[in-house]
Amino acid sequence: MENQANIEYISTDFAGEFEAQKNYDITNIKESDSSFDLIICFHVLEHIEDDRQAMKELFRVLKEGGKALIQTPFKAGDIFEDITIRTPEDRLKNFGQEDHVRVYSVEGLKKRLEQAGFVVQALSFAATNNNEGDERMGMKKEEAILVATK
Prior knowledge:
- With 150 residues, this protein is an alpha+beta fold.
- 19% of the residues lie in helices and 23% in strands.
- It has three helices and six strands, in the order βαββαβαββ.
- The protein has a four-stranded mixed β-sheet.
- The longest helix has 11 residues, at 51-61.
- The protein is globular and about 45 Å long.
């Protein structure tokens, strides 16, 4: 995408783990209001302690009518989070990864995004090859992506 003349693409990373053009703190994005038509936010929010502030920032920097595509690991039921779980070992045990601070449910994340002002549609992608996932498209069995529109 970044090689197309009609598209301005900005890659970002906060912790410097990946090569990126910018390093944004998602809870305080150093861009003006209504800066982006599209935001792709995959596997970020489950790492952010103040996820509600991050969602407000995504809403702020998105243009009217713009979309944010959001994906995290999901589980059934309610969102599971506990701010007293601090060590990497305990986070791995409770959230599935050493640097996660919660596990969302699709409905729980949808509700939080709506509270930030978004209109949210949850899209579900089911595997087509014997329920093993679609490796070519990068989708696992029963993946969900939330489309959050401003």
